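Final report, section 2: Outcomes. Of the targets proposed, Carbohydrate ABC transporter membrane protein 1 (CUT1 family) is the one most frequently requested by collaborating groups, and we therefore present its record in full.
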Amino acid sequence: MSTETGRESRRSGALVSVMRWMENLSDTQYAYLLLVPVFVLLGIVALYPLLRTFELSLFALSADFSSTTFVGAGNYVELFTGEKNRYLPGGTTFLPEGVGTSALLNSALVVTIIFAVVSVLFETLIGLGQALILDQDFYGRRWIRAAIIIPWAVPIVIQGMIFFLMFNSNVGFLTPPLADLGLLAPTNTLNDTASATFIIIVADIWKTSAFMALLILAGLQSIDRGLYDVAKVAGATKWQQFKLITFPLILPTIGVAVLFRSVQAMRVYGIIDTVSSCTVVPSLSCMVVATFTTREGTSAAIAFVTAAIIGIVVMGLIVWQGEDAI
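The predicted structure is given below as tokens.
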């Protein structure tokens, strides 16, 4: 009996010591302690795959694909000098081989950046407009909010099929009027790089504007309504209220929304594959998938470069927003 009591006492003593240690921690130290599980999980699911990808990018398959050889930065050098372009599908390249429209749109890096910048810009503007409308009190607001979410809830495969049928040069009803305006090629529309890129950007804007609207709406509803009452008493116009109250207070929310969407946009693949193809509209993710089975080192190098670009974008947005970004 005394032995069991002693063991229980030692256990209780250890537990009490841990509790006292935690009680003596500062608020900052306690916050970091609570984040330890998150950091461990992040290291397992994010950091390790990234390091493993970098390791794979330092090797190249032999000519007969039977063994790997350490090449160091060779894959990266060949990628940026154009030596790896012969392994990419179709006539696509990693970097543009000229300054013409065709050369730019055949570059996976350029197309990815164009897609990310244009789609995120219009999604943010449209989402902001939708959020400002949904923040107002009017009859049927609940149903309109539900309707706006529908495009975001549509699976990418279904979304791709919708836009494939709408813009197919044989059966698509939107191709003729847009072709008359010079926005699309009248024939072989989805096999034309410029036309297919335009369609894919429109498809992404249609789907993801709702995501931006929901995030921005959450920021709008956190604003103290008393500020607007004070502004009305002071004689401020609607534009002045938006410029001096609404926009500054939702800017951190917009920054977070842009951050999330920029990361997703840089990894675009599914909508390209379902609407057109990666040989028509190249992207960095398309290049990773296309080269993975035959050129693992090349695929890993492209993937790591993509991750590095995403990291630069994220850090740039955080610096732009400051502490409010997180």
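The CA atoms of residues 279 and 295 lie 17 Å apart.
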